[in-house]
Amino acid sequence: MHIRSRSRAKLALSAAALGCATLILSACAGGSRPGDTAYIARDVESLYAAAKGRLDRGQPKVAAALFDEVERQHPYSPWARRAQLMSAFSYYVAADYTKSVESAQRFLSIHPGNRDAPYAYYLIAISYYEQISDVTRDQKVTEQTRTALQELIRRYPASEYASDAKLKLDLVEDHLAGKEMEIGRYYERSGNWLAAQIRFQNVVTNFQTTSHAPEALYRLVETNLALGVPEEAVKNAAVLGANYPGNEWYEKAFELVQERAQGVTAS
After folding, report:
1. Which of the residues 6, 25, 72, 101 has an alpha carbon 20 to 30 A from that of 82?
2. What is this structure's pTM?
3. Average pLDDT, the chain
4. For the chain, what is the domain count?
5. Long-range interactions of 244-251: CB distance < 8 A, separation 24+
6. Is the distance from CB of 100 to CB of 92 less than 8 angstroms?
7. Positive or negative, the Cα torsion across 146, 148, 150, 152?
8. Looking at the domain assignment, is residue 198 inside a domain?
9. How far apart are CA 214 and CA 236, in angstroms?
């Protein structure tokens, strides 16, 4: 199953558990009426049931508004807590990721130690994750995804969401490293060797477990030679050979050092 699909399934299962918890069995059993809309004052059970019914019928935006109404009309009810998370999930399903994050963050600010907090943190991370663009565009949301995933893993390493978060974190870091490589290559093509070197070094230092690390080390060899520091080129080539023996980038680095830094030894 695709990673995004697996995440949606995990969220949906968790949301179903929230929606049909013991506290609200009566609401799950009840149906919502065709005329149900937000902003109509009603008892908390029927309002929650109306929201759940809309979500089940594929109307997540309406469902989110109704879940918000549960909290607005009955802020001190035990139902309000679950409605907050169900609202965040509904906004996620509706692809309104900004509101999903806001709703989940609001839940955490009010109920920081709640047993459903890991789910809220996961919703935040996944909402950011869904917005990641390709490496040619600004990566602010990718950084937000990375931070959110790291926070979830740090706080709840044994939770059911941690393993998926770790997998996504690997993909996110690979994405960020790819952006650094793209910029570094651009600077290198432009002859801006120092700026290129900074980008490649960032990949080696901060994203050393990604698939881009071998190429970054090779590019450092290139920029070292272009900047007139063959000793550093030899050093980076040695690191590349020690960590990625037989890698195509090491083979290229070895040939380059043999050609342009022969006789130089790393200090």
Report:
1. 6
2. 0.76
3. 85
4. 1
5. 244/213, 244/214, 244/217, 247/214, 248/214, 249/214, 249/215, 249/217, 249/218, 250/214, 250/218
6. yes
7. negative
8. no
9. 10
Count of C-beta atoms within a 10 Å radius of residue 260: 15
Number of neighbours of residue 49 by Cβ within 10 angstroms = 24
Tell me whether residue 186 is in a domain: no
Residues 19 and 92: their CA atoms lie apart, in Å, by 15
CATH number, domain of 30, equals 1.25.40.10
Torsion angle in degrees (nearest 10) through CA of 24, 26, 32, 36: -60
What is the amino acid identity at position 95? Answer: A
Burial of 1 (0-12, 13-18, 19+ CB in 10 A): exposed
Enumerate helices (H) and strands (E) in the chain, giving the number of each: 13, 0
Structure tokens given for 177: 């490293």
pLDDT tens for each residue of 197-234: 999 999 999 999 999 999 999 999 999 999 999 999 99
Q: 52 lies in a domain? A: yes
Q: Establish if 14 belongs to a structural domain.
A: yes
Q: Are 231 and 264 in contact (CB under 8 A)?
A: yes
Q: How many CB atoms lie within 10 A of CB 30?
A: 16
- Kindly report the three-state secondary structure assignment for every residue of 136-204: CCCCHHHHHHHHHHHHHHHHCCCCCCHHHHHHHHHHHHHHHHHHHHHHHHHHHHCCCHHHHHHHHHHHH
pLDDT averaged per 10 residues, the chain (length 267)? 54 56 38 46 83 94 93 87 94 96 95 92 96 76 94 95 95 94 97 97 95 97 95 95 93 91 60
CA-CA distance, 227 to 205, in Å (whole number)? Answer: 20
